[in-house]
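Handoff note, outgoing to incoming analyst
You'll be picking up this chain. Sequence as last confirmed:
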Amino acid sequence: MRRLIMWNLETVDGYFNGSQPWQLDFHQAAYGEELEQLMTGWHKDTQGLLFGRTTYEGMAAYWINAAKTEPSAIGDFMNRVPKFVFSSTLKEATWNNSQVIAGDPADGVAKLKQQGDGPLYVFGSAKLCHAIAQHNLFDEYRICIAPILIGDGEPLFRPGVGRLNLKLLEARALKTGAVILRYAPAPTPPAAKA
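Most recent structure output, in case you need it:
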């Protein structure tokens, strides 16, 4: 079965996006050579990316153009890798190697995890991450905490997921001051006896 990994950057105060759509300038506080090398290494065995519609459209607009103006290993990867877009409104996905999956995201994700091997990643896509986390379908959470507070924005984790215990797999500090946290779901501890 494929592993499903969430990869996101967020601020110390818990925002993965600023108060305006695609307000991601805080990413610069985390980026550097170390993070780029880590991400490039993760891409080597990635078998697909999962997106919600909004993130898909923004990523497609950026990476299609970046491939023409600023070729890079990450750009090549983004344009080549299979992409699965979970949307009830998007009818077709025109970015290279993309497929729209309609219907209940949890069902679609569960089916994708059964097909093939090699990890799948979700980038951005807070609404999709919420739906996946509600059904405990992530095998790993990778979160890069950027060393910045922005005071307002869109939170990565929203109310309604419910309690989910996590086990720390790794905490890695970067030279930029960012910290990468890797967690796996952990069993719920037994209730305390009265």
